[in-house]
Specification:
Helix content: 25-40%
CATH class: Alpha Beta
Bound molecules: glutamine
Number of strands: 11
CATH superfamily: Class I glutamine amidotransferase (GATase) domain
Order of helices and strands: EHEEHHEHEEHEEEEEH
Shape: globular
Number of helices: 6
Distance between the termini: 14 Å
Number of domains: 1
Length: about 230
Amino acid sequence: MVRVGLAMLQGARYEHAEAIKAASLQLGVEVEIIHLKMGKQVNAELDCLILPGGESTAMRKASQSESLLEAIYAWMSEHPTRPVLGTCAGAILLAQPDSTHEPFIRTGISRNAWGRQRDSFEAMLEVRLEVPVGKDVELSADERNQFNHQPLPVQPSGSESSAQQFHGVFIRAPRFEQSSIKCNPIVSLGEETVGVLDGARLALTFHPELTGDYRFHRWLLHRASNAD
Ligand code: GLN
């Protein structure tokens, strides 16, 4: 059983819950998703965490009353080998935590650096990350969340692991400061790195939870079941 802590501060959080359910079916791994709203819910029982995308300033504000981010950062410092997936605003929170924590991914990041909301875009990406291939399972309509979000279809690309292509959705996304990247670049858009892995921390500047390709969620579950 893998216990997944999902930060419910703001943003695309329900889509991540759905993606985790799908990934767990694909891998045949049992999961429990803990919807984190208060710092006191963050404990040693959690095997991994997800910091969703949305608006990082709004998230920091939403965190204040129940100290959720503070507890998440403390947990990450205490459990460096337990995996964390941060997407978009979540990547910003990993690269720029609060004043008492060192960055959890070693790279600079610039907010809104592709432009304004209307400059949001989709593009094919190249992924270099070892991920177990999952069974071909889709969620049924009643396993989906109440917002009836329809994930973008996966491109038919032969074997996922060999094709390494991923449909990237960038929504007023941040950019890694390319010359400052001191961890492992694992996703690129042409020449530019848009996903990095630093130890057990995976930070993506796009929104994988909006597509029906759950490989990053499978990575999280697989890594969590093999962590200390
Ligand atoms: N623009 C947001 C921020 O600065 C990030 C966008 C996203 O998560 N889609 O926090």
